[in-house]
Amino acid sequence: MAQPFQVSIDVAHPGTTQEEWYDLRGDGSTQYYLKHWYPTDPSTKEVAQPKAAVVFVHGFADYCDRYTGVFRVFPDRGIQVSGFDQLGFGRTWHESPNRATTHGWTSWPDQFRDVSCMLRLTRARLDERWGKDTVPLYLMGHSMGGGITAAFFTRDPASPPEEEVKQLVSGAILMSPWLDIHFPIPTAVGIPVMRSVLRWFPTIKLPLGPPSKDLCRESAVVQDARVNPLSSCYVHVRCLYGPLSGGPQIVAEDYRRWPERLPLLICHGTGDKVTRWDCSKKLYDHLKGLGRSVQLVSFTGFYHEAIFEPGQDKVLFAQTLVDWVEKQVEARGRPLPPANERSVP
């Protein structure tokens, strides 16, 4: 299996990484690939108690190992990150015994279930090692994972995920979220067509073509996404229906269900030609209008995978994420700052 092109950020204390295979659902059906980035004690190199922990949800045709070098900024500042390759993607899919029939075989209900399992697992492990509720837990998603994260807290209360799981989370981060995309077919046309196709052909798969050349301004990242088998875009259509139909609904209406207690950070490049920055801006404006604790940081000219952008741009993006988590940890027990927006030139 090809190794991903590694983008790295130099830090003084990168911590340590660990990978594992885990029956995330606990039903014996699937082994999920999990990746962890742990802070360490500089003197002993042993895993140190984190000031916060983040559960990461990757994007479409994406997987956790791509982030190995850039997520080092989190343990450098004492923050743990734990992610998993989603059902139908990454190594969870590629190393499964039925790889040919399961690529992208997932949906929003499946993904909500898996995120819930990952949150419960991470919370239980943190409590066992460091004490109950000692380490606050945050949920962060990129692209498709960003849409899942936004949807996770805005579903109808009668549907999953359960409120008990939402309460485990102290804050959320959306990275270039898939709330809508620069789609060649208008959403109003594409969604009814897709709904009809899935009704008659529920297992249909489509080759969506190679990843866009506008994925990132780092050309090596784009090239790797085009040749690495883990980034294949030939997937089941059913995994696209949730974000294509539900993402715009979050911006239009479902944002009203965003919990009053839950702070949110949205980071998005204005040059993103994959997911729409203007939808992130609309979501921010709507939530701000409701008085929610929300911050939008717009990165001028950054492309979709902003955390892999060339030079210091990726550092600036990554540090914004870490700074926000630290700010939330410091604010625990104190009033949160008002909603705000800023742009990074």
TrEMBL record:
Enzyme Commission designation: 3.1.1.23
Major enzyme class: hydrolase
A single GO molecular function term of this UniProt record: monoacylglycerol lipase activity
Key words of the record: Hydrolase
Domain Serine aminopeptidase S33, residue spans: 49-310
Pfam families tied to this protein: Hydrolase_4
SUPFAM superfamilies xrefs: alpha/beta-Hydrolases (SSF53474)
Domain of life: Eukaryota
Catalytic reaction(s) noted: a diacylglycerol + H2O = a monoacylglycerol + a fatty acid + H(+); a monoacylglycerol + H2O = glycerol + a fatty acid + H(+)
InterPro entries recorded: AB_hydrolase_fold (IPR029058), Hydrolase_4 (IPR022742), MAG_DAG_Lipase (IPR051044)
Protein name listed in UniProt: Monoglyceride lipase
